[in-house]
Design goal:
Blueprint: H1 2-20, H2 27-44, E1 47-53, E2 62-66, H3 72-80, E3 84-88, H4 97-103, E4 107-109, H5 114-129, E5 133-136, E6 151-152, H6 156-162, E7 165-174, H7 192-201, E8 205-211, E9 215-216, H8 222-236, E10 246-247
Parallel strand pairs: 1-8, 2-5, 2-7, 3-4, 3-5, 6-10
Antiparallel strand pairs: 7-8, 7-9
Helix pairs in contact: 1-2, 1-4, 2-3, 5-6, 6-8
Length: 251
């Protein structure tokens, strides 16, 4: 109960920062707040982060793509490399946390809304061309650890049009023995609240984030770019990618 109370207070503190500080500061200071707040949230959740770089520096601007396991993923990445995220619209309904990620600049996409997708796509291209670092989860939903779902290819077109690089991140969560930490899986009918309780009541978690080599978007085809990113992440996680993994829908 103590950790749940600490998390609730931390969420409220984050809301106050978004409401009373973010409107008056620039992107650099905002990113510093996002990084600090995310690290504190992970500490409350007993999550430590281990980073390895596959001979690759993290892009200062460009498109970041990562496999998707839990609601923790956004905060693990933001604790290290704050990004402007693109996420499914359901996240907006998470208690408190949904409002927070929205205030941090997250763009939400409703399933099947092609008109909205076109508008968001233009905004992403503009953000990338302005030098922002944009991130999304191309699986479109969370998957159990040890699996990697098909990648939706549509949003990769923003990197092609913006002529920026795409950098894959491979993410996993392990326990003290180095085995997949089952308390982190956020799949099926599990609610956000149930997932939070599982993590807070569970054993310490180590998030392993591997930064992979960036891929040029200029002149590429979105499907080939998505396939290459899928293969790179699958290989880093030790998962054999399926031969046919692409879908034309965006989540």
């Amino acid at each position: 109960m103590l950790r749940i109370g600490r998390m609730a207070l931390h969420l409220l503190a984050g809301m106050a920062i978004c409401a009373f500080i973010f409107p008056f500061i620039g992107p650099e200071k905002r990113n510093a707040h996002v990084r600090r707040w995310s690290r504190q949230l992970l500490a409350i959740c007993n999550v430590s982060v281990q980073v390895s770089q596959d001979s690759a520096e993290v892009l200062e601007h460009g498109m970041v793509v990562c496999n998707h396991i839990s609601w923790l993923d956004i905060f693990v990445i933001n604790a290290l490399y704050p990004c402007r995220f693109v996420a499914k619209s359901e996240i907006r309904d998470w208690p408190l946390a949904g409002w927070l990620v929205a205030q941090a600049g997250t763009v939400f996409i409703a399933r099947g809304n092609k008109r909205e997708l076109r508008t968001i796509f233009k905004g992403l291209v503009h953000a990338l061309q302005e030098g922002q670092r944009v991130a999304f989860f191309p699986e479109g939903t969370t998957a159990a650890q040890g699996t990697i779902l098909p990648f939706h290819a549509n949003l990769f077109e923003a990197a092609v049009d913006g002529k920026v690089q795409v950098q894959p991140f491979a993410l996993s969560y392990v326990d003290a023995a180095g085995q997949p930490h089952q308390s982190v899986d956020f799949i099926g009918d599990m609610t956000f609240a149930q997932s939070v309780v599982n993590i807070l009541d569970g054993k310490p978690v180590r998030a392993r984030l591997t930064v992979l080599a960036p891929m040029p978007g200029a002149g590429a085809h979105r499907r080939e770019l998505a396939q290459a990113a899928h293969n790179a992440i699958g290989t880093a996680l030790g998962i054999l990618p399926a031969a046919e993994t692409l879908q034309e829908h965006s989540a």
